[in-house]
Queue: 3 jobs
Job 1
Amino acid sequence: MTDKDALKALSQGQELDQPTVRRLMRVGLIEADDITTLDTPGGQRVYKPMAITMRGQKLFGEYGITVYVRCTSRKPMGDQQVD
């Protein structure tokens, strides 16, 4: 799955696998919270995507895709249109 496809799936509310979430975080396309619990297998971290960054939103613009992103960061901003 490409970064563009992963961001589009995320913006549509689909779940992403953890390697994809980590990759998007590493390249700065999303922000995610660490939701690791005591039930998580040893040595592993579990991340939940919380927001698409401005860099991720610009990637949509490069492909001419308009999507609505629900901002769920610590400071709610409501629905935002990405051009």
Note: The first helix runs from residue 3 to 11.
Job 2
Amino acid sequence: MNNAANALRQLATDNLTEGATAWADDEDMLEMTRSDSADFVKVAELLEAGRNDEAEAYLDHMDTSPRERAYEAIQGKPFDGEEVLVIKKADLGRIRELVKAHGLLDELQALGVEVYPLELS
């Protein structure tokens, strides 16, 4: 069972349901809702097939709002509308090194920056 894929499939269903109500009279918005939901399902399918690198690449090319909603679904926690910087787990160590080397760690901590590693399994 792939929890991230299941969460994305549920997000696609919820998105379609919400969109049908909110945008019942706006075909353009309904189409965008359908497109976003199809993107969620595509990422779920890639994850289920074990093609995590392709899933990450697909997420990277999605529009900002649906991409952030996908990350929220995968992580199981909301980002509360805050700006989110997503860093692949493989790059996190190097990013931390750069932050420390340039003296930014204290500033980031003072801003309350939190790290949510993206787990695609």
Note: The chain has a mean pLDDT of 81.
Job 3
Amino acid sequence: MCFQRACFKYHVTLMCRQVISDVRIPHAAPFTHWSFEAGRRMHTTENEAERFEVLLGEKLRPVEDEVGRTYLQAIVVEIVRQLQPPATTALLADRYLYRVAATSSRSRAILAVEGALKALGANLVRELAYTREQATTILDQALARWAARYFHVRARVDQDAT
């Protein structure tokens, strides 16, 4: 599956009057909103991590626009070191980034990143009815996938998926 927002597509199987149709739907906010409201999960938790990687990227893009790429990388590493999600921590373990000075920009960026993670976690638990443990694993995998692309880190992020 392609990970760029422009080519991420959902494969949906529809059935009406015993006629089955397979449809590919490009990623779009309205479809995602509908799928959450309807409680529609992806086929596997790995597919769910792929979807949430795209959603995380969308939520963090405005933060990057405000503070810049390097600053956002430093904030993400700081948050990962505090929260210690297993796959993402392993991926970024030896990543050294400059320390970000305590400013209002830093505070806003931290709140935005933490808010994005909490909102996506809530989507997994409330709308898609995953357990907290499953949601934590999916969100960790999504963050690790996003970080691997964003930081240009080569690592196999799916090895801890189970």
Note: The first strand starts at residue 9 and ends at 16.
